[in-house]
Fold:
Amino acid sequence: MNKCLMMCLLLAGLRLNAQPGGADEPVRVINDGIDLSVHDGRLRPAVGVENIQVMRANRTRPETADNYGWTYNHAPMLAYWNSKFYLQYLSNPFAEHLPPGQTLVAVSSDGRTWEMPQQVFPIYHVRPGTISSIESGIAMMHQRMGFYVAPNGRLLVLGFYGRAPAFSGANGIGRVVREAYKDGTYGPIYFVRYNSLSDQNESNTFYHFYTRSNDQGFIDACNALLADKLKTMQWWDEERNKEDDFFSIRGPSSASVYHRKDGKAVALFKASWAAVSADEGLTWSNPVQVPTIITDGAKTWGQRTDDGRYAIVYNPADFGSHRWPLAIATGDDGILFENMLLISGEVPPLRYRGRAKDFGLQYIRGIAEGNGDPSGSDMWITFSVNKEDMWVSRIPVPVRYKVEGAVADRFDQLAVGAIVPDWNLYRPRWAGTSVVAFPSARNKSLQLSDSDPYDYAKAVRVFAESKTVHISLRLLARQTDKGRLEIEVLDHAGYRPIRVVLSERGRLQAANGDALVDAGGYRANAWHRVELAINVSEGRYDLSVDGKSVIRQAAFAEPVVSVERLSFRTGEYRTTPTRETDRYGGLDLPDGDDPVTPVIYHIDDVLIK
Structure:
């Protein structure tokens, strides 16, 4: 019996025989199916999501990345404090669990433009005669918790030092803490808890215990953290002392905790595990694997959203080293989740090889309860891509996939660089997508620029699902001798029946069935009016440029029953990596550290009806 059929039967049985929410099934996700042969899983996008690259790893030009040039970057955490976003991640020179390790924090005032990451926990050299690393006398970092906003308003930043590559239990050293100050500096580093199985203490470690601080407010913040069972349960994966009653739940890894509508706390762990608590984490139900959360070794995130509903975000894939797509499901009560939608299905090439560098968008974390609430209603998450680059996503709330009515986007009323309503933007650091004052401050446009040798800029406009649609837009390319802009119209599952290309040789091309045919030339620095008349029932479309018909009755490249997305992308459609791609295969990609000559495109007056 194939897996899809088994899943359908399982869901049918669950609907008939069980009520979700209890200890046996704390949550349930209704999922109509995922196609893992494509990076977006054939999911509809959540409308208006903005995916923003915070840090692009760079080995030979570290000043463009983090000033260190390390290429293994992973496990990001997110908080909002003092009107700023804080993003923490751990970093190794090139591979997972191989020392040295350090932790960095990037800061942003709006979540969309980020400062250079700063080191907050440096390389730790193990003292002679104590725990030593298998690889060297240098520790690694491996934290499951990054931030804590204390009841007294202090922001604590946390990390964990351990032996490499086996970091936990008797191989652990302990958890460190320091305070973030409002002026952007950080306080001294202390240990807040030593690993109880490793005989570490103040006499054989390099940092003092937190109670030695002269700042009572800092000590109070640490004490509040140590007393908060819903927060410290995240530490189990690194300590793993089954005899230590500090932990009220043991076993699963990487807890994400939120409170359901009924007031109970739910913990979502890696590999589909979940548990529920009615007493704020003092006791928990026995952890169970939720049958409807199909995932593997990546993390799962759950939270209450600002509209009073709930969201769960994870990789709905059962193959742990290939982690795509990044998806969100929503619900009313924190128990039942449905309408799974796409946050991101972009999986760029792995530029730097290294141990256990899984492909894809992974280790999702949001802003935990108590760790701040940014202005507005947007939901924010962070994740790593290929375990080398840091990203955030801004997800408009309420989360939706439908758009009604005609589209008339002229961008003139938007501020330069502002959020673009109802557009899904993919924004690598070297391939930007933003509103710019071109051709003038009064007549703005949406600009796609690209200087990334291995990635692209992308902008998608969802429109009302249609069988007949007329699309009109103005388009300007700054160049004709390089670069590539692909314009596509898609259906609900991401099939691409209509494809128009501005090629690298100054030619306009359009799909006619499975072939690209020439549709004439285009000029640099000249506005062209592009129009598409689409008839889904006939499987045909017409293309006009500057009022002149250049393609008539072209056949769809793929059959669809309706269309609902307009896409612009400064590169070719990606099909690799696949689930068969070896994460250890090959070498570093050539010239990945150097930007290429930028190409720029402008889009304006997008009319869809």
Summary: The longest strand covers residues 72-81. The chain is about 5% helix and 35% strand. The helical segments are 3-17, 216-227, 229-232, 236-239. The domain at 407-608 is CATH 2.60.120.200 (Jelly Rolls).
